[in-house]
Amino acid sequence: MSNERPTAEELRQGLTVEIIQGDQDVESEDQEPIIGEVGTVYEDDPAGPTVELKSGVVGHVQSIVHDR
């Protein structure tokens, strides 16, 4: 399993992803990723593709959450 972030092209509306909000400290040990369904995909970014979740939260995708 790779730790590479997905690209914007790989993301689709309705996918469940794990995001980090842009104003969170990416280096922080206690950051909590947000998990939700993709509503809108914006663009690729060095921090990960920017998306808006259906909940309205905007952030950078760290990974796609697969069924557990």
UniProtKB/TrEMBL annotation:
<dbReference type="Pfam" id="PF09962">
    <property type="entry name" value="DUF2196"/>
</dbReference>
<dbReference type="InterPro" id="IPR019240">
    <property type="entry name" value="DUF2196"/>
</dbReference>
<protein>
    <recommendedName>
        <fullName>DUF2196 domain-containing protein</fullName>
    </recommendedName>
</protein>
